[in-house]
Design brief:
This protein is an alpha+beta fold. It has twelve helices and 18 strands. The strands form three sheets. Strands 1, 6, 7, 8, 11, 12, 13, 14 and 15 form a nine-stranded antiparallel beta sheet that branches. About 25% of the residues are buried.
């Protein structure tokens, strides 16, 4: 009798709950089919509306241009997504989460290794640096040594020409910067997502438009509102900021600055009276810009407009004049000029256990300083077949070696003491380490969270309880992913520092072990308490 009751109870449960799961699936498939049938009709209707709007816009084009858009104008669109489509997107998020997880580990590892190398290099630099006098005399005895040249005078001995405009500065110009802005219609979009019964979603997108000067070119050909597709600029004119360096900048008494150090000069001032012409001409487009206010040169296709209008352009020029700077770098000979010296990067070198003589050390330092970023990237990475097995580590190591090289090769404005130089260098290294560390954490966290997206999306198909359970499960997964990211990243940091700072690494590993043992002990106490309560 009891067995028969169980069978009837199980049958009743199946009869009650099976339609609850089957109906959303059937509805989702039916929705996808209806969406395919309506797509052709919607396309024809949208094309008809587009032609109608284009006809109205052409008829009132002059009025629209005179009136101009306002910031309150907006366009809304609604898109619906069925449960099956959401499952496809969640599977894509799953694959993307795997990619993030795989790349987050080498990014954290290589970043910590680079930070540890930089710390060792800074400590070595403090011991090896040679401070020169304020004149910055280039002495032969300091060749292939790390030198600190405080307050030397930069002198540009070559003219600097702008690539797109007929602007040229013959002297006293270390760098020339051009900023081009275009008056444009800017589109901004905001979305609001609403869950539907059966696991689908409806997304409402609101597009807003406003006019402003921008140094970034906004292609309006794909704007949602066809009336706003009016951004224009002269052919060949590039919006943005562009900098030209002087081809030869002498420094101190006997030095020539390399382009890498010249690019670190950032004390720009307005060109002002250095260019007294009332107009500047764009070489490619052949249009002239008239001098305006605040050092801007302005080009207006419609000269009758009293206020800025769409298509107006303006350009401003700034330059870095000769001045005092401080250099902290490796002194090396200047190719082709025996009486001149220049600078190279002070980088880590490999030393045997018994050490190197002074001559061997200088030779190794110069060899490292002469390597380009491409050479460093080529030497980095995993050797042999490991480059294929661990391709992610191989790729990340090459990028770090070529872009974020461990080196001392810095220029500072004004006269800066040697201690201040190393303090700023250490602070910059710490900042880069934490920025990349946070990026690695976020990649690991969102990658781990993306692995659970198919599960959360599948749960939402359950009627009534689905969205609530999905939100609750998402919060739990969010917490667990954060905890796992913290533990895994700490282990990676510890092993990365094991070679350079073994004491620090062992301290971190001991802390992780202690926290893990504490959690396990707390769990065992809870289990024993539950067992005693049941007994």
């Amino acid at each position: 009798m009891a067995l028969g009751q169980k069978k009837w109870t199980l049958l009743a449960i199946l009869v009650i709950f099976l339609p609850s799961f089957a109906v959303p699936l059937v509805a989702a498939r039916r929705y996808e089919g209806q969406k395919q049938e309506l797509r052709s009709h919607d396309h024809n209707l949208e094309e008809h509306r587009y032609r109608h709007k284009m006809h109205e816009w052409t008829a009132s084009e002059a009025l629209q241009e005179a009136k101009g858009p306002t910031s309150s104008e907006s366009v809304q669109t609604k898109t619906s997504q069925g449960w099956l489509s959401r499952m496809k997107d969640s599977c894509k998020e799953f694959l993307f989460g795997i990619i993030l997880m795989v790349f987050s580990v080498p990014i954290l590892w290589v970043n910590e290794s680079r930070a540890a190398r930089m710390e060792c290099l800074i400590e070595r630099g403090r011991l090896k640096v040679r401070s020169l006098d304020e004149k910055g005399s280039a002495l032969d005895e300091n060749t292939d040594c790390l030198v600190h040249v405080p307050g030397g005078q930069t002198v540009s001995v070559a003219s600097v020409n702008d690539e797109q405009f007929d602007v040229s500065i013959s002297d006293n110009c270390v760098r020339l910067k051009r900023t081009v802005e275009v008056y444009q219609i800017i589109e901004t979009a905001s979305t609001e997502e609403k869950s539907e019964l059966g696991g689908g979603t409806t997304t409402t997108t609101t597009y807003k438009y406003h006019e402003e000067w921008s140094s970034i070119w906004h292609d309006s050909s794909k704007y949602e509102d066809v009336h706003k597709r009016r951004n224009t600029k002269p052919s060949g004119l590039d919006a943005g900021t562009f900098i030209e360096n002087s081809s030869r900048v002498e420094f101190g008494a006997g030095f020539v600055l390399p382009d890498e150090l010249v690019s670190q000069c950032h004390d720009f001032v307005p060109l002002g009276s250095r260019h007294s012409e009332s107009q500047v001409k764009h070489i490619v487009a052949g249009v002239s810009f008239d001098r305006g206010v605040e050092d801007w040169y302005i080009y207006r296709p419609d000269t009758s407009a009293g206020t800025p209008s769409i298509g107006d352009c303006r350009v401003r020029f700034e330059y870095v004049p000769n001045g005092q700077v401080t250099v902290l770098a490796l002194q090396v000979p200047k190719d082709g000029e025996a009486e001149k010296k220049t600078f190279g990067a002070f980088r880590p070198i490999r030393e045997p256990f018994w050490g190197l003589s002074e001559a061997e050390e200088k030779q190794a330092l110069r060899a490292e300083a002469m390597k380009s970023s491409g050479n460093l990237a080529g030497e980095a990475g995993c050797p042999g077949i490991l480059s294929c097995i661990c391709c992610c580590c191989h790729l990340v190591s090459k990028v770090f070696a070529g872009v974020l090289t461990s080196e001392i090769f810095d220029l500072y404005s004004g006269s800066v003491s040697v201690n201040s130089c190393f303090e700023q260098l250490a602070a910059g290294t710490e900042l880069v380490k934490w920025v990349l560390r946070i990026i690695g954490w976020f990649m690991m966290f969102f990658g781990c969270y993306g692995l659970f997206q198919p599960v959360l999306t599948f749960i939402q198909v359950v009627p009534f309880l689905g969205p609530f359970v999905a939100k609750l499960g998402g919060a739990v997964i969010w917490f667990l992913c954060g905890l796992g990211t913290l533990l895994i990243s700490t282990v990676i940091v510890s092993f990365a520092h094991l070679f350079y700072h073994p004491k620090k690494a062992l301290l971190l590993l001991s802390l992780i072990l202690g926290v893990t043992c504490l959690v396990m002990f707390a769990g065992s106490l809870m289990n024993s308490g539950d067992s005693s309560a049941q007994a």
